[in-house]
Every structure is written in structure tokens, then in C-alpha cells.
Amino acid sequence: MVNEVHRVCERYHAAIELIGARWSGAILRAIFTDHHRYAQIKAAVPGLSDTMLAERLRRLEIEGLVERRVTPSIPVQVEYHLTRKGADLEEVMQAVVTWSHKWLPLPGQPVGEVLEAGVGGERD
């Protein structure tokens, strides 16, 4: 049994692909930190295009992590909120934040500084 292969759990793999898709984690983090309107989410995630934000919000909505709420007014107001399924990711998201602060450098910070200190610096 030296060469026994243990396959990655399919549910685990699907979960990582869902929250790890480009921009998805950052969008979820923005919603977790009370950015609910489209413009607020876009402003909270530098470099995110309108097209990609719309696409990711649709995907997160289809997957049941986010719900789109429309308030009939002039102009119409649209907000995005976490569903129970999405809110259940809170501990996971916080664990990723904690891990990133410990192990990942800030832009422009040498990787060696993080590895030596074991701390990534500023907090979100």
C-alpha cells in the first residue's frame, strides 16, 4: 500500500473552485464587509471590471451564495446579500484572511520578510 492514491474529495474540489474562482473570493469578502451595492463592491475590489463583476455576481447567485435584491425606486436600487449558504462561509473566509496576513506579502513587500516574521503586515 505504499503507492495508494487518495483522490481529492469531489465536494471539496467543487467548493475550492467556487470560492477560488478569480475575483469570487474578493467579491464575497466585500459583501461580508457590508458592501452590498454594485458600485460599492466594485470600489472595494481594485482592478475588477464591470463585466467580470456582473459575471461573478450572477455565478454566485446561481450557486446560491448571494441573492440579488431589487428595490423599486427611481432609479432602481439593486443590492447583493449573502444567503444562509453564503453566510456559512464566514469562518472559512476569516481563516483565509488570517492565513494571508501570516504568510503572504503585501504588494511590493519582499517574500522573505513575510517568511522570516511569519506575519504579513496590515490587516483588512
UniProtKB/TrEMBL annotation:
<dbReference type="InterPro" id="IPR036390">
    <property type="entry name" value="WH_DNA-bd_sf"/>
</dbReference>
<keyword id="KW-0804">Transcription</keyword>
<dbReference type="InterPro" id="IPR036388">
    <property type="entry name" value="WH-like_DNA-bd_sf"/>
</dbReference>
<keyword id="KW-0805">Transcription regulation</keyword>
<feature type="domain" description="HTH hxlR-type">
    <location>
        <begin position="9"/>
        <end position="108"/>
    </location>
</feature>
<keyword id="KW-0238">DNA-binding</keyword>
<protein>
    <submittedName>
        <fullName>HxlR family transcriptional regulator</fullName>
    </submittedName>
</protein>
<dbReference type="GO" id="GO:0003677">
    <property type="term" value="F:DNA binding"/>
</dbReference>
<dbReference type="Pfam" id="PF01638">
    <property type="entry name" value="HxlR"/>
</dbReference>
<dbReference type="InterPro" id="IPR002577">
    <property type="entry name" value="HTH_HxlR"/>
</dbReference>
